[in-house]
Amino acid sequence: MLYDEENENDSTEFFIFPNPTKDVLNFKFPNGTDEMEISMFNLLGKNVFVSQIKRNNPTTNISFLPKGMYMLQMKYENSIKTIKVLRN
Question: CA-CA distance, 43 to 85, in Å (whole number)?
Fold first, then answer.
């Protein structure tokens, strides 16, 4: 989900911004979630990046990845969410 001021106070959703990005992705966690594991896959399905994201440092730098479209998979609590991320 993209960051959206209207949904900023929604405590059950996570947000990732900016998307598209040149380098850094920021994460806004849902209430009750302190960390998540993220995996990024290229469009061929190859896992190109894995990281743990914590609430106290909710960013990750993806500037090392080639420009293009990626699938970002987030695992937190008992949930798995996948969204498209554009690195430009």
Answer: 11
